[in-house]
Amino acid sequence: MTNLADKVVFITGAARGIGAGTARALVGEGARVILVDVDTEPLKLLADELGERAVAAVADVRDLDAMTAAAATGTERFGGIDLVLANAGIGSYGSVLTVDPDAFKRVIDVNLLGVFHTVRATGPSVLERHGYILIVSSMAAFGAAAGMASYNASKAGVEHFANALRLELGEHGVDVGSAHMSWIDTPLVRDVESDLSGFSEMLKKLPGPLGRISPLEDCVDAFVAGLDQRKRRVYVPRSIGLVGWARMLLTTGIVERAMISRSIGQLRQMDDEVAALGRSLSARIDKLTGR
Questions:
Q1: For this structure, is 132 an active site residue?
Q2: pTM of the model
Q3: Which of 185, 206, 242, 282 is the most buried (most CB within 10 A)?
């Protein structure tokens, strides 16, 4: 039993994957959802599926005016916003010296600036209702990985954004959490598996939860609980919390030397495969962003 009945939840990246799964679960708990995504067709299909407890707003998180309009659409329909799930995110492929600069920037714009735009657009209503904001970071905020510099930087950035926001809004009765997940069975991860043959080999070499792909349902359950209980941290799986506590160990010279020796061949393979693909983003993201 949750306290989510009739709460209004603003969700970015809502058209598929974690966003769509969480939206379905929230409506099942009696909540109402404002679904925001740049991908029009699946977003509207999801809104139709969820019925009167859902409204769709097509918007790009990189566009503050569009996000402000999306928030206005939701408040006009449901009267306000209680909870926010800042979930929209993408990744790029390739080393810093070979990755497409536009792709690198796009990751930062979506993953980091997109969170700022989401909070800026929804903040007044959340503040008025003494609500809660859950910002989706990643285990990538705890330790870097070769070939993922833009994703690592953006997710570390939004973790600290959440920490700062918590300090700013706490006195006003607004709680802020950050979510840190390992690999989740989503379209984003499936795209990486499809595009990069070395991805599965990389997972096999990672210890414990770092190399495991968790079911989407586990992440959805954790997000719903996080929103319901206004958690400061959400971990998927829970053992990722231990990685967070041990993050300083991941940047020691001994660990970094071991990671360098493991990643040299994988990084070269990734760069070769990215060159063959002719793109540094998944085909789906390329299509949606007009590249």
A1: no
A2: 0.86
A3: 282
